Structures are given as C-alpha cells and as structure tokens.
Amino acid sequence: MIKGRGRVAFDGEDIAGRPSEWIVRRGVAHVPEGRGTFAPLTVDENLRLGAYVRKNVKDVKADLAGAYERFPALAERKTQPAGSLSGGEQQMLAVARALMLRPRLLLLDEPSLGLAPRVTGEVFEVLRTISAEEGTTLLVVEQNANLVLRFADHAHVLETGRLVLSGNAEKMRADPSVQRSYLGR
Amino acid sequence: MSAVIQNVIDGIAVGSIYAALALALVLIFRSTGIVNFAQGEMAMVSTFLAWGLATSGVPLALALLITLAVSFVAGMVIERVLMRPVEGGETLTLVIVTLGLFIFLNSLAGWIWGFGTRAMPSAFPDSAVQVAGVRVSLESVGITAVVLGTVGLLFLLFQRTKIGLAMRAAAVNPESSRLVGVSVGRMLMLGWGLAAVLGALAGVLVAPQLFLDVNLMGGVLIYSFAAAALGGFDSPLGAVVGGWIIGVTENLAGTYVDFIGSDLKILVPLTIILAVLLVRPSGLFGSAEVARA
Question: What is the pTM of this model?
Fold first, then answer.
C-alpha cells in the first residue's frame, strides 16, 4: 500500500476512512467503474436499493416514478434482471440508482468505459440535465478528455497521481498545449 | 397402494426437515460462498436447549419459541465473533473455522449434557387420521405444515421487505451494497441468525423421531447436503424440492428395495450427491456458475 497524505473532506467533514454507509448517509452517491449493478436483481429492485438509506417512503416512491420518467428504457425493463440490460442501459441504471439517494454529490468513475461513442454521448447528456435541473454536484473521473471537457465546468488533470493542471474546463479546451497533450490535436 | 402413499407422505415430512437444514446451508452459502459444516451441530445444541427447557418444566411451545429466539441470537454472535475475522479470506480458512466450530459444539454438548441418549417430546399429537383409506400421522402433517409456513415467511422476508432486499443485494454484490449504504456485515449476521433458526427448527422437528444425543444431526446433515446439492446450492427453492425428493426416495428405497432396508438408507443421499456431481453439478435449480468474484 502506498501511504497517502492530506485529507478527504466533504462539506467540511473529514470522510477518509469512514465506512461507506456513513458516507452514503451524508449524501454522496457513487457510480463505480464497471457500473456495479446488482445483476441478478430486477431493475426495480436495483433502483429501490439506491434509496436504501432514505426513510421517507412516499418521497422514495415519487422519485422512483420520476426515475422511470427520465429513463423510459428502464421503465420498459422494470422486472428484468439488471444483468440482461445492454451496457448503455446498465450505465443509465447505475446513474438512476445513484440519483435515488437524492445525492448532494454524485461521483462517477469512468462512465464511458466499454460504451459505444453514441451511447457515451447519451450518458453525458443525461448527466448534464441532472446537474442543470437538480443542482447536483458531479465529480467525474474520465479518460476521454475530449468528451468530458465539453460537459464539465471545472477540470483537473492528473498525471501518474500528480495534479498537473486545474481550472476552467472551457479555457482548458481552448489552450493549445492542452490540446496537444491531452486532446490529440 | 395406500402403503406407498403413506410412505410418500412420511417421506415428504422427513424431507421437509432436510429442506429446513438445507435452506440454512443455502442461506449461508449464498452470502459467504461457503458451506457451514457446523450447521448441524448448531442445530443439535439448539435442540438440547429445547429439551432442557421442556424437561425442567417450561411448557413445550414456550420452550421451542425460546429456543428459536436464542438460536437466532447465537447464530448472529457466531458470525460476528468467529466468522467476521476471517470473512473475505481463503475459502479453505472459512471452511476450517466451521469445522472447528463443529468439533467444539459437539464436545461442548457432550460436556454439558453427556453422551447418552434422551427422548425429545414432540410438539404434535401422537395420532393419525384416516384420509381416503390412507393413514396419515399428524406428526407428518404438522412437520410439513410448519416447514412450509417457515419457507413462506422467508419468501415474504426476502421478496417483500426492504431488509430482505438488502440481504439479497449484500449476497450478490457486497461492494455495490456498501455504495448504496447497506451494512454488509449486519446482513451477514442476520443471515447466520436466520440459518441458525432454520437449523434449530430442523433439530426440534427431527429429534422426537430419533434419539436426542450429541450426534443427532450427523445423519440429517448428510441428507441436507444431498438436498442442497440436488436442488442447487444457491437456490432456496431447490433446497426445498431437493429435501422432498431425498426424503421420499429414502423412505421408498428403505421400504421397497430389499437390500437397502433401514441399515443402508444412508447410501441413498450419498448416491444422489455423487450422481448430481457427475451429471449436473449445478443442481436442478442452481445457476450454472456460482463462483464468487
């Protein structure tokens, strides 16, 4: 193990080393790399699990209906096992499940992994609407710099664990040196 | 003909007992990926507790309820104290811990209650009813009904409640379960508690038909292994159906196949285990691959 330094704080609270449940309860949802859906469980069960720590049954029910409205493809597959969905649908399910928490912060790890470019575009469109409509803060880790810089407000570039660039995404996209090094132009 | 039907009904009753213990095995296998070899001995200790309470004057029904409750707590404690430290380790390590628990509980019971045999009172009246010319013992009907009722309750728990959903989630994908806020450790504890209750149920149901001693569950465990293997080790439905098939086959073979009789009955489950492993290793209802990532 590499020893880490510094701290991880959310909303002023130190969250490093806390159990995942504890962090989830503070409103941090996480869509892991590889989506992390519950393959044998149905789409509906996956979504309900997303709201596991929420107590208000009525609100959760309303949000469930809202999720099906936002993702009609999931509504059609409500009772199917999540594992039977296509890659894009599973990524949508993973995002929808994370939103069921009504998170204050939504973490996404490599959402484009293994998806066709068109589907990736759809996923990012959905993320943009979420951020605009719900005011949810998104933290996206993504290798596809071209794509992610078009959607992000702020960007940080990490190279082998070191922060090398940080700033406004729009400006970064226009920066010739960034274009040469990361955008392949 | 009526004798055959009688045999089948008794087979279903004893098969229900195997099903209860097989369900306990399946419950733990699904969430931890191991077979709990101590499941039978846990059930044996529970049965001794019920016997001890009943013989010291506690009404049988109350004694059974107390036993089930104590078993639930004891199962959770065993998970928390013995299994948790090795959870996520090598499968072999976990299995060895359950084997150690097996030996420990067996000796503990011998130390407390001795190695002699006792008579366990039955919760059901010792009489029979005549249905369409077939004599059906109330004990058989009662056992089957109790196990079916329990299976029904378990089904409701797992399919209709939030905690049941969380338990299934923790079993299929512990990592993602944590990410939605499920405490996987707590779900494992609950699973062990429920498994201990199922085992205790099997113990108090089977003991009146046999003699209660420290090796009470040895044979039953083998039949339940066979039931779980036949049904598929990750399928609760398979455990129940497997239990019935084993129970009925055992009874019919013991009665109608001359050379088996009552002495070689134990060959029946062993043969079935072997046949399943050769022909269909995933069992009747199991998913083809049950390896855990």
Answer: 0.89
**Interval B165-185 mean pLDDT:** 94
Give all strands (DSSP E) within chain B, no chain letters.
128-131, 134-137
First vs last Cα of chain B: how many Å apart?
A: 51
- For residue B219, list its beta bridge partners: none
Which residue among B169, B172, B179 places its CB closest to the CB of A32?
Answer: B179
Contact B162, B30 (CB under 8 A): no
Q: Is the pLDDT of residue B204 over 90?
A: yes
pLDDT in tens, A7-60: 888 988 898 889 999 999 999 999 998 888 999 999 999 999 999 999 999 999
CB proximity list for B125: less than 8 A, separation 6 or greater: B138, B139
Decide the pairing of beta strands A137-141 and A105-109: parallel
Chain A residue with the nearest C-alpha to that of B168: A41
Name the residue ranges covered by the structural domains of chain B. 2-124+134-279
The answer to whether the CB of B15 falls within 8 A of the CB of B227 is yes
pLDDT value of position A2: 64
> ipTM score here?
0.88
Domain range summary for chain A, segments of one domain joined by +:
9-143
Which structure tokens are listed for B230? 């036949």
Q: Which of B166, B173, B183 is the closest to A36 by Cβ?
A: B173
Provide CATH code, domain B2-124+134-279. Answer: 1.10.3470
Q: Report strand pairing: A137-141 vs A154-159.
A: unpaired
Distance in angstroms (rounded) separating the CA atoms of residues B153 and B20: 13
> What confidence category does residue A113 fall into, taking pLDDT thresholds of 50, 70 and 90?
confident
CATH code of A9-143, in short, is 3.40.50.300
Provide, rounded to the nearest whole percent, the portion of chain B with pLDDT above 90: 72
Mutate: best of B173, B176, B183, partner A, most A CBs <10 A: B176
Question: Which residues of chain A neighbour B180 with C-beta distances below 8 Å?
Answer: 24, 49-50, 52-53, 97, 101
Cα–Cα distance for residue pair B191/B171, rounded to 1 Å? 10
- Tell me the CA distances in angstroms from B97 to B40, B81, B85, one per residue in order: 14, 11, 10
Mean residue pLDDT of chain A comes to 89
List the single residue in A38, A52, A101 with the smallest CB-CB distance to B172: A38
